[in-house]
């Protein structure tokens, strides 16, 4: 996995995390639809191979 692909994946993960956090703080139909759309887009990109997903954990403490 290239460095740029790893950064792209990390950015998508951060975006999903922030969207989920926002929904949990202010649950509503609009926020949920936006979250679900973003999650579907991420899943579609992963399925089609347009984003790389690390095969092992890259979490550092």
Give the SSE map:
Layout (H helix, E strand, L loop, with lengths): L2 H23 L3 H20 L13
Helices and strands, in order, run as: HH
What's the structural domain tally? 1
- Rg, alpha carbons: 13 Å
Please bin the fraction of helical residues. Answer: over 70%
Please identify the structural class as seen in this structure. Answer: mainly alpha
Large-scale geometry:
globular
Structure notes:
There is one protein chain. By secondary structure, this protein is mainly α. It has one domain. It is 70% helix and 0% strand. It has 2 helices and no strands. It has helices spanning 3-25, 29-48. Helix 1 (3-25) runs antiparallel to helix 2.
Quick recap:
This protein is mainly α and 61 residues long.
Features:
mainly alpha, globular, 2 helices
């Amino acid at each position: 996995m290239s460095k740029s692909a790893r950064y792209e994946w990390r950015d998508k993960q951060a975006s999903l995390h922030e969207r989920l956090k926002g929904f949990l703080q202010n649950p509503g139909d609009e926020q949920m639809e936006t979250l679900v759309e973003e999650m579907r887009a991420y899943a579609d990109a992963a399925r089609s191979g347009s984003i790389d997903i690390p095969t092992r954990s890259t979490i550092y403490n």
